[in-house]
Design goal:
Blueprint lengths: L7 E6 L3 H7 L19 H9 L9 E7 L2 E13 L2 E11 L8 H13 L5 E3 L5 H5 L2 H8 L4 E3 L2 H12 L1
Parallel strand pairs: 4-5, 5-6
Antiparallel strand pairs: 1-2, 2-3, 3-4
């Protein structure tokens, strides 16, 4: 039986590497970025997205889950503009290794659904790691994002646009 944990939520727009780290409470007392226990959520992924955000794109949004003061899960949502269409994509959902299988990814997707329901946006899934495939994250996303248009791939999204414009 899964242990019920109490989670807090924080939503942060990315400014720069140190601002995002401070806002997500990932800097310890020594000022060191703390990403231990996460697979995708890292200094490199935050730095990479801050370097390559195009002018037309909006800044990435980080949805984060906390157990007490511990950061236990992060969902990164990136914005993209291609072929005059814009959409959001889940870049990753990363749950700390010590907190997996406790409903944290579900909690993050529920917050994303609440945020997106009044936005009139499309949200794409992400390529999954083997752990993500095993956890059936695409199924979880489709099941929870009831108030948001969601697609597994960019091709599926573009196909839906072609059908709507015919």
């Amino acid at each position: 039986m899964k242990t019920k944990i109490e989670l807090k939520f924080k939503q942060v727009l990315q400014d720069n590497i140190y601002d995002i780290a401070r806002k997500l409470d990932t800097i310890d007392d020594c000022g060191i970025l703390v990403f231990k226990g996460f697979h995708y959520f890292s200094y490199h992924t935050i730095r990479h997205s801050s370097l390559y955000t195009e002018e037309k794109q909006q800044k990435p949004i980080y949805f984060s889950a906390y157990q007490g003061k511990a950061l236990v899960g992060v969902l990164k949502l990136g914005h993209y503009v291609r072929n005059n269409y814009d959409f959001w994509a889940v870049n990753y959902v990363d749950v700390h290794k010590d907190y997996r299988q406790k409903g944290i990814a579900t909690f993050l997707y529920e917050r994303l659904n609440e945020w997106g329901k009044n936005q009139n946006i499309a949200i794409l899934g992400t390529m999954l790691s083997k752990d993500g495939e095993k956890a059936k994250i695409h199924d979880l996303r489709r099941r929870i994002l009831k108030d948001v248009k969601t697609y597994d791939t960019e091709q599926e999204f573009h196909y839906s646009l072609q059908v709507l414009t015919k």
